[in-house]
Amino acid sequence: MMTSSGPLTDEQMNEARSAMDTSLLNGLISVIAMLKGQGLLNDGHVRVIHEQMAKPLELPNRANNPGVQLAQSYLDQMFAGLLPPRK
Questions:
Q1: Got the DSSP string for the chain?
Q2: Could you tell me the superkingdom of the organism this chain comes from (predicted)?
Q3: What is the largest CA-CA distance in the chain?
Q4: Residue 9 — φ and ψ, nearest 5°?
Q5: 8 pLDDT exceeds 90?
Q6: What are the residues whose beta carbons fall under 8 Å from the beta carbon of 68, sequence distance 6 or more?
Q7: φ and ψ at residue 2, rounded to 5 degrees
Q8: Closest CA to 82 of 43, 39, 31, 24
Q9: Residues forming a β-bridge with 72
Q10: What is the average pLDDT across 57-66?
Q11: Is the dihedral of CA 60, 64, 66, 72 positive or negative?
């Protein structure tokens, strides 16, 4: 990818992807929290969203990747703030 100052390095691209992923996830969690706060989503809805977002991270070809495990942990922590503990 080119910028006005020349091509981006692999490290710059990886940092940009990571920043964008974090930005998108934070935005999505914020929207979910707002909708839940307004009564438009319930705990069941939020759990389904979490499960759907986690599915690609749990695929056999990815589940043993330490980076994917870290991403799964981060996702779980973010959703834990939106849901009461399971009984």
A1: -EETTEEPPHHHHHHHHHHHHHHHHHHHHHHHHHHHHTTSS-HHHHHHHHHHHHGGGGSHHHHT-HHHHHHHHHHHHHHHTTSPPP-
A2: Bacteria
A3: 55
A4: -80, 165
A5: no
A6: 57, 62
A7: -105, 145
A8: 43
A9: none
A10: 92
A11: positive
Query: How far apart (Å, rounded) are the C-alpha atoms in residues 29 and 46?
Result: 10
Structure tokens at 38: 């307004």
Question: Is residue 2's pLDDT more than 80?
Answer: no
Token pair recorded at residue 19: 């920043």
Q: Which two tokens stand for residue 2?
A: 């080119």
Structure tokens at 51: 């499960």
Type of residue at 23: S
Quick check: 72 and 58 in contact, CB under 8 A?
A: yes
Tell me the pLDDT tens digit for each residue of 18-61: 999 999 999 999 999 999 999 999 999 999 999 999 999 999 99
Q: Tokens at residue 68, please?
A: 């994917």
| Tally of residues, the chain | 87
